[in-house]
Amino acid sequence: MITATATDVQNNFGYYLKAVQAGEEVIILKNGKEVARLISRKSSVSFLTDSLTGILKNDYDEKAMRAERIEAHESMPHAKDTQF
Questions:
Q1: 23-28, long-range: CB within 8 Å, 24+ apart, which pairs?
Q2: pLDDT category of residue 67 using cuts at 50, 70 and 90
Q3: Strand, helix or coil at 54?
Q4: Helix (H) or strand (E) holding 21
Q5: Any long-range contacts for 39-48 (C-beta under 8 Å, 24+ apart)?
Q6: Is the dihedral of CA 36, 41, 45, 50 positive or negative?
């Protein structure tokens, strides 16, 4: 995962698009808060399918999923640390 500010994504969109095409996920921050993610179409379909499967099986814990995402977000490299 790559983290970048909205301004950085705006100014370097081609770079981040290539990262997504290479399989990376880009977290976009505005004022230090996560506001969006760029992920490939294939990844988005997989994520939605997995989430819906968990919900339908009553095996979905929103608080646990949120905590996992926050933990992953805190440990990911920032955009300037990653080369493509």
A1: 24/82, 24/84, 25/1, 26/1, 26/2, 26/79, 27/1, 27/2, 27/3, 27/73, 27/76, 28/4
A2: confident
A3: helix
A4: helix 13-21
A5: none
A6: negative
Q: What is the pLDDT of residues 34-63, one digit of tens each?
A: 999 998 887 765 555 666 666 566 666 667
Q: Where do the structural domains in the chain lie, given as residue ranges? A: 2-81
- Predicted confidence at residue 54, as pLDDT, reads 61
How far apart, in whole angstroms, are the C-alpha atoms of residue 60 and residue 36? Answer: 22
User: What architecture does CATH give domain 2-81?
Assistant: 3-Layer(aba) Sandwich (3.40)
Per the document, the length of the chain is 84
- Give the global pTM: 0.55
Tokens 């990262």, located at residue: 19
